[in-house]
Amino acid sequence: MSGRMRIRTFLAAGATVCGLAAFAPGRPSQAPQDPSAVLPLEKTVAVAADAGWVDTSIDVGPGDELRFTASGRIDLQRGNPEALCGPEGLDLVTVDQPVPNANIGALIGKVAQLVAQRVDANSGLEIKDEVFVLFLIGPEGTVTVPFKGRLYLGINENVLKDNGGGFSVVVARRPL
Protein backbone atom coordinates (compact mmCIF):
# COMPACT_ATOMS: atom_id res chain seq x y z
CA MET A 1 0.00 0.00 0.00
CA SER A 2 1.41 3.39 -0.86
CA GLY A 3 1.02 6.40 1.38
CA ARG A 4 1.12 6.64 5.13
CA MET A 5 -0.96 4.64 7.56
CA ARG A 6 -1.85 5.28 11.19
CA ILE A 7 -3.63 2.48 12.98
CA ARG A 8 -5.06 2.16 16.45
CA THR A 9 -6.08 -1.40 17.22
CA PHE A 10 -7.34 -3.49 20.07
CA LEU A 11 -7.83 -7.22 20.42
CA ALA A 12 -11.30 -8.66 20.64
CA ALA A 13 -12.23 -12.29 21.19
CA GLY A 14 -9.98 -14.80 19.42
CA ALA A 15 -7.65 -13.56 16.70
CA THR A 16 -9.95 -10.76 15.58
CA VAL A 17 -8.44 -7.30 15.45
CA CYS A 18 -10.58 -4.17 15.25
CA GLY A 19 -9.45 -0.64 14.71
CA LEU A 20 -9.71 2.76 13.16
CA ALA A 21 -7.28 3.64 10.42
CA ALA A 22 -6.44 6.77 8.52
CA PHE A 23 -4.50 6.29 5.32
CA ALA A 24 -3.55 8.02 2.12
CA PRO A 25 -3.83 5.46 -0.67
CA GLY A 26 -2.24 5.82 -4.05
CA ARG A 27 -5.58 5.50 -5.82
CA PRO A 28 -9.18 6.35 -4.89
CA SER A 29 -11.69 3.69 -3.91
CA GLN A 30 -15.45 3.80 -3.86
CA ALA A 31 -17.68 3.69 -0.81
CA PRO A 32 -19.45 0.36 -0.22
CA GLN A 33 -22.81 -0.15 -1.92
CA ASP A 34 -25.94 -1.75 -0.50
CA PRO A 35 -24.79 -5.31 0.42
CA SER A 36 -28.09 -6.85 -0.71
CA ALA A 37 -27.39 -5.63 -4.28
CA VAL A 38 -24.05 -7.46 -4.53
CA LEU A 39 -23.88 -10.43 -6.90
CA PRO A 40 -22.58 -13.06 -7.38
CA LEU A 41 -22.77 -14.80 -4.03
CA GLU A 42 -19.66 -16.84 -4.87
CA LYS A 43 -16.49 -15.40 -6.33
CA THR A 44 -12.87 -16.47 -6.85
CA VAL A 45 -10.28 -13.85 -5.93
CA ALA A 46 -6.54 -13.89 -6.69
CA VAL A 47 -4.41 -12.66 -3.78
CA ALA A 48 -0.83 -11.91 -4.82
CA ALA A 49 1.64 -12.22 -1.92
CA ASP A 50 3.15 -8.79 -2.67
CA ALA A 51 -0.12 -6.89 -3.34
CA GLY A 52 -1.14 -5.67 0.12
CA TRP A 53 -4.89 -5.59 0.69
CA VAL A 54 -6.80 -6.92 -2.34
CA ASP A 55 -10.24 -5.37 -2.86
CA THR A 56 -12.65 -8.24 -3.55
CA SER A 57 -15.37 -5.83 -4.76
CA ILE A 58 -17.70 -7.66 -2.35
CA ASP A 59 -19.80 -5.42 -0.13
CA VAL A 60 -21.15 -7.12 2.99
CA GLY A 61 -23.66 -6.38 5.72
CA PRO A 62 -24.01 -7.18 9.40
CA GLY A 63 -24.80 -10.85 9.96
CA ASP A 64 -23.63 -11.99 6.51
CA GLU A 65 -21.75 -15.27 6.69
CA LEU A 66 -18.61 -15.50 4.56
CA ARG A 67 -17.03 -18.88 3.79
CA PHE A 68 -13.51 -19.06 2.35
CA THR A 69 -11.55 -21.84 0.67
CA ALA A 70 -7.97 -21.01 -0.33
CA SER A 71 -5.25 -22.76 -2.29
CA GLY A 72 -1.84 -21.88 -3.67
CA ARG A 73 1.64 -21.18 -2.32
CA ILE A 74 3.52 -18.03 -1.52
CA ASP A 75 7.16 -17.21 -0.91
CA LEU A 76 7.62 -14.81 2.02
CA GLN A 77 11.19 -14.12 0.91
CA ARG A 78 12.05 -14.83 -2.71
CA GLY A 79 14.94 -17.27 -3.00
CA ASN A 80 14.57 -18.66 0.53
CA PRO A 81 13.21 -22.24 0.38
CA GLU A 82 12.38 -22.06 4.11
CA ALA A 83 9.94 -19.20 3.45
CA LEU A 84 7.42 -21.11 1.29
CA CYS A 85 3.93 -21.69 2.67
CA GLY A 86 0.30 -22.27 1.86
CA PRO A 87 -2.70 -20.28 3.16
CA GLU A 88 -2.03 -21.60 6.69
CA GLY A 89 1.22 -19.58 6.79
CA LEU A 90 4.46 -20.52 8.51
CA ASP A 91 4.49 -21.62 12.14
CA LEU A 92 6.04 -18.32 13.20
CA VAL A 93 4.56 -15.24 14.85
CA THR A 94 6.30 -11.85 14.76
CA VAL A 95 5.69 -8.77 16.88
CA ASP A 96 4.52 -6.65 13.96
CA GLN A 97 2.00 -8.38 11.71
CA PRO A 98 -1.63 -7.47 11.03
CA VAL A 99 -3.21 -10.39 12.98
CA PRO A 100 -0.78 -10.83 15.89
CA ASN A 101 -1.73 -14.33 17.06
CA ALA A 102 -1.84 -15.96 13.60
CA ASN A 103 0.97 -17.51 11.56
CA ILE A 104 3.03 -15.18 9.43
CA GLY A 105 2.03 -15.46 5.77
CA ALA A 106 -1.43 -16.86 6.54
CA LEU A 107 -4.39 -15.69 4.48
CA ILE A 108 -6.31 -12.99 6.37
CA GLY A 109 -9.36 -10.86 5.72
CA LYS A 110 -10.57 -7.37 6.50
CA VAL A 111 -14.03 -5.81 6.48
CA ALA A 112 -13.69 -2.02 6.30
CA GLN A 113 -16.23 0.77 6.44
CA LEU A 114 -15.32 4.25 5.19
CA VAL A 115 -16.02 6.86 7.88
CA ALA A 116 -14.70 10.07 6.31
CA GLN A 117 -12.50 11.47 3.55
CA ARG A 118 -10.29 14.54 3.82
CA VAL A 119 -7.20 16.10 2.30
CA ASP A 120 -4.08 16.35 4.48
CA ALA A 121 -3.11 20.03 4.61
CA ASN A 122 0.62 19.30 4.75
CA SER A 123 1.00 16.57 2.11
CA GLY A 124 -2.01 17.25 -0.11
CA LEU A 125 -2.79 13.51 -0.02
CA GLU A 126 -6.35 12.25 0.27
CA ILE A 127 -6.88 10.64 3.70
CA LYS A 128 -9.57 8.02 4.22
CA ASP A 129 -10.65 7.18 7.75
CA GLU A 130 -12.11 3.71 8.16
CA VAL A 131 -13.35 1.38 10.84
CA PHE A 132 -12.27 -2.20 10.22
CA VAL A 133 -12.07 -5.71 11.61
CA LEU A 134 -9.27 -8.15 10.73
CA PHE A 135 -9.61 -11.92 10.89
CA LEU A 136 -7.68 -15.11 10.16
CA ILE A 137 -8.87 -17.23 7.22
CA GLY A 138 -6.09 -19.77 6.54
CA PRO A 139 -6.90 -22.63 4.10
CA GLU A 140 -10.58 -22.56 5.10
CA GLY A 141 -12.54 -20.22 7.28
CA THR A 142 -15.95 -18.81 8.10
CA VAL A 143 -16.72 -15.41 9.55
CA THR A 144 -19.92 -13.57 10.45
CA VAL A 145 -19.66 -9.93 9.41
CA PRO A 146 -20.13 -7.49 12.31
CA PHE A 147 -21.03 -4.39 10.26
CA LYS A 148 -21.61 -3.06 6.75
CA GLY A 149 -18.41 -2.68 4.73
CA ARG A 150 -16.13 -3.87 1.93
CA LEU A 151 -14.24 -7.20 2.04
CA TYR A 152 -10.47 -7.21 1.46
CA LEU A 153 -8.06 -10.15 1.48
CA GLY A 154 -4.34 -10.12 2.29
CA ILE A 155 -1.30 -11.86 3.69
CA ASN A 156 -0.49 -11.77 7.42
CA GLU A 157 2.79 -9.93 6.94
CA ASN A 158 3.83 -6.28 6.75
CA VAL A 159 6.97 -6.66 4.56
CA LEU A 160 5.49 -7.53 1.17
CA LYS A 161 7.96 -6.29 -1.47
CA ASP A 162 10.12 -9.45 -1.35
CA ASN A 163 7.14 -11.84 -1.55
CA GLY A 164 6.16 -13.99 -4.53
CA GLY A 165 3.34 -16.31 -5.56
CA GLY A 166 -0.26 -16.04 -4.52
CA PHE A 167 -3.43 -17.64 -3.29
CA SER A 168 -6.66 -18.40 -5.13
CA VAL A 169 -9.55 -17.82 -2.75
CA VAL A 170 -13.18 -18.83 -3.25
CA VAL A 171 -15.43 -16.52 -1.26
CA ALA A 172 -19.03 -17.63 -0.68
CA ARG A 173 -21.35 -15.04 0.83
CA ARG A 174 -24.61 -15.96 2.50
CA PRO A 175 -26.66 -12.82 3.31
CA LEU A 176 -28.53 -12.57 6.59
Q: Which H/E pattern describes the elements? A: EEEEEEEEEEE
- What class, by secondary structure content? mainly beta
The main sheet comes to: 6 strands, antiparallel
How much of the polypeptide forms β-strand, as a percent range? over 45%
The CATH class:
Mainly Beta
Q: Output mean pLDDT.
A: 82
Tell me the total number of β-strands.
11
Output the radius of gyration.
16 Å
Give descriptors for this structure.
five-stranded antiparallel β-sheet; 176 residues; disordered N terminus; Jelly Rolls; mainly beta
Can you describe what's shown?
This protein is mostly beta strands and 176 residues long. It has one domain: Jelly Rolls (Sandwich). 0% of the residues lie in helices and 50% in strands. It is built from no helices and eleven strands. It has strands spanning 5-11, 17-23, 42-48, 54-60, 65-75, 84-85, 107-119, 126-136, 140-144, 149-155, 164-174. A six-stranded antiparallel β-sheet has the order 1-2-8-7-10-4, with no helix packed on it. Strands 3, 5, 6, 9 and 11 form a five-stranded antiparallel β-sheet that branches. The radius of gyration is 16 Å and the shape is globular.
Question: What is this entry, summarized?
Answer:
The protein has about 180 residues and is mainly β.
Write the layout of secondary structure elements.
Elements: E1 5-11, E2 17-23, E3 42-48, E4 54-60, E5 65-75, E6 84-85, E7 107-119, E8 126-136, E9 140-144, E10 149-155, E11 164-174
Antiparallel strand pairs: 1-2, 2-8, 3-11, 4-10, 5-6, 5-9, 5-11, 7-8, 7-10
